[in-house]
Amino acid sequence: RSSLVDAARLGALAPKRSAVRCGGCGCACALTVVEFEGSRRFVSGNRCERAHAFLDGAAAGAGSSADRRQVVPRRDAGRAPNVVALERKLLARFGDVAGAGPRAEARVGLMDALNAYENLPFWHTLLRELGFSVLMPRRDEGVAAAEGLETIPSESVCQPAKVVHARFYDLAGRGARAVLMPRYERGSRCPVSSCYADAVRDSVPLVHEGAVSLVAPTLGAVRPEGIACSEADRAELLASLGRIAPEGAPLGADELEGALEAGLAAQRAFEDAVARATERALAWVHAVPGRHGAVLAGRPYHVDAALSHEVDGVVERLGLAVLPPLGLAGRLRAAREARSGAAWPVSSAGALASPPWKPAKRLVGLARFVAEDPSLELVCLRSFGCGFDALGADEARDVLEAAHRSFTVLKIDDIVDTAHLRIRLRTLAEAVEARDLRVAGEGFSDAAPARTTGGEPAGLGGSAETAVAAGVEDPSTPALRASAQDDKGDRPCASSRDGEGAVPLLGRIGRADLERARVGVNPDVCHTVASLAGRAARLVEADPSVRRLSVPRVCERCLLDALPRLVERACGRAVEIEWEDAWPAGLDAPAPLPAPADDDRPRIGILGNALLCFDAYLNDGLVAFVERLGCRAVLPDPANLFVDDVRYGAQLDAFEAAGVDHVVYLQSFGCLKGHVHARGALHEAARRHPNMPVTVVDYDPEASALNRENRIRLAVAAAHQARAKRPSGA
């Protein structure tokens, strides 16, 4: 007998249709809901499963917005421990606190972002023990926070840096007269996470006007133990905090020592609690076959609720235990000691057997720990546009692929639609289940190819064969060499062989070098470093006897330090780099056309790193273009460009002395130091050189050349107007 309903029942159907705006997330999908009798409901227009949870919560008339965002559970939902959530709750205990004693009137805001996030117990306890009243930023986006977002100097800076501005204004709006945000000596650290206090000082009007004092001691150590052990760091803290202490309550060295000890004790208690919870979670994973855990790797501040988009909750509801890197610190130290001197694994994408790039060592350690435990997976969180995160993820991928393990990387930042994050994580959970079945012998083959979830393809950093497979000709082929010559770029020609010294890398960069970079270099690496890496890869591939390259250090202590590793990843061969601290003497910088003595044309200064300023292909022939527009191009002194501070103050002074009317600052897209110093310092440059405006132009092969040209035309037009208004003979 047919189970289809008859005509009478069909005629009796009375579906109710309604249009609802989903409140499950910020996407606010327009839902069409059709309800039938018997609580049957059909939903369309939704882009994820949150719509069903939202409608269930609305029908019940109860439940918070977080309750309505549940992901359909898998495995042992509700039973998997989430240590990342515990870490976040422990940090949330450090809230506002009123001071005691004569310093209670000093209300100090504590910036809980970037490198200070994980060390919040130390800094909070330190200020409290010294008697200051402590204010912590709120997470809600109020009017003050929105005002703070307007002061962000660079729209392409990562979201962890952007939240600093919102939190700064929140603290100021609630009465903080000083905000503590330490800056750290760079070394090999990320410029943004270490020195973003400089960007706040340069770009936030509240600091310029003196309404709020920015307390930014420069410290050599990031970890509290290192700060307490460093005499220089203690002296810097004493001087910085002493400046905000009331006149009648000066800060003494002995008092600071006691507060440091209390801060260290609070930090140790916090870390011990996280470590114990992590050990319990690992025990839960290993107690029953088939249970798994996920290490939520990334930078310490990526677990901030404002940045993580509930990724840990999604992983937990998929039935995997969620483990933070902080809780594994002891195990990682023991693992490093145990494998001291052991060879690095070889990636399936190429023979990358040399040690990883130094800033990636923490993430690589986590990857190796996960690779040795089949019950664990690695979920890597990274920020959009962060070259440091991108290269670290590549290093972790090498380790996991060598062990035939999956690798999941999630780009998180200021995003509203998080469906792709949940899809990636569900894919990971299904891959884990499939692997368990294969191990159990339930119809799966023994082959275990490495699988990459998210990020760039696993073979991106392969050798020349990878380039051919991707549809790009190998740089050593005659066709591509001709292309390089057509673009007026030098064909890689090694004038030195093994034992004959370093081969100069620079010549005239052309399109072939950039095409090689597109194939073999991570797209989040800045334009300058990618260009050099592409050229180096072509040179090494064209002449396998090349072992050493001579490269000018056009950018100090940033992604340029990763050039040897990038070249090895691109072509599968390790090369040594000999750094030069000056522009090569034999490589002439382009000079503008000779100007007559009575030349009254507007003068346009060209500023930026030396490679962009002096290589005509990379800057789109800027010198000739400026000359065609009726201006005189003024090139910088190369000696003023080989500095770590990309404000280039000495060169700006030289431009002003030379009568420059307008400066065009050339910046590589993705330049991390530019986010911190260059753009934020434009306000200071305008105050220091009021008659010499600065226009920043981003250079990137994917960006529109027309947009760059229009910005330069506007700068030239402004220079013409300024010159026309200038008194005769001035």
UniProtKB/TrEMBL annotation:
InterPro entries: CoA_activase_DUF2229 (IPR018709), Dehydratase_Activator_Redct (IPR051805)
Transmembrane segment boundaries: none
Segments forming domain DUF2229: 107-324
Region Disordered, residue ranges: 445-500
Protein name, entry field: DUF2229 domain-containing protein
Record organism: Gordonibacter massiliensis
